[in-house]
Amino acid sequence: MKKFITTLFFLFFSFLGLAQKGFYPVMDPIKSTNSYCLNENCYYCSTAALLNTTVTDLVASTGIMQQDTAQIDEIIDLFRNAGVSVRCITGLDEATAYCLLSTLPNGQSVGLAYTRQGGSGHMVVVTRDSGYYNNGVNPSLKCVDYQSNPPRITGFPYEGGNLIFNIFIKN
Questions:
Q1: Is the whole model's pTM more than 0.85, yes or no?
Q2: 20 secondary structure, DSSP code
Q3: How far, CA to CA in Å, does 52 sit from each of 25, 26, 43, 124?
Q4: Where do the structural domains in the chain lie, given as residue ranges?
Q5: CATH number of this structure's domain 22-170
Q6: With the C-alpha atoms ordered 87, 66, 70, 34, is the resulting torsion angle positive or negative?
Q7: Burial (0-12, 13-18, 19+ Cβ within 10 Å), 101
Q8: What pLDDT was estimated at residue 139?
Q9: What is the pairing mode between strands 86-92 and 164-170?
Q10: pLDDT digits (tens, 9 = 90+) for 62-72
Q11: Span 93-108, pLDDT tens digits
Q12: CA separation for the pair 168, 10 (Å, rounded)
């Protein structure tokens, strides 16, 4: 019920133009944020990209070392330690996540973490880009995986399957 109310609240205020904005500018998708070239630091790479910096600079500015995985509250703490207040809309299915992401102003980005059925997860950056076609499937939503070197760009959803989505957006 809480997810449903949060979704309705967000959609209502989005249509009125009162929705909180995403991140802008973010790291250019042709540049890598993963300065340590690790393969299990997606949340750190995505956070760095949203803050338009590198993992090396984010570690230096926050004093928080990378871990292989992070819970939602740890990701929120990483943003907070970098001086940015975020909130997380949790437990979304693909259709609801798509609707919410589609309300972002063009050019704005958010963090998108998701959990797979087996419990593992991943985090990418999603940008609303009206020029991104993606072969007509969920057009205008571009996912960038900054953990990959070079960053991997795909449409939404980043991968298929029965996923649970969490969206990190600025307060």
A1: yes
A2: P
A3: 7, 4, 14, 14
A4: 22-170
A5: 3.90.70
A6: positive
A7: buried
A8: 84
A9: antiparallel
A10: 999 888 889 99
A11: 999 999 999 999 999 9
A12: 13
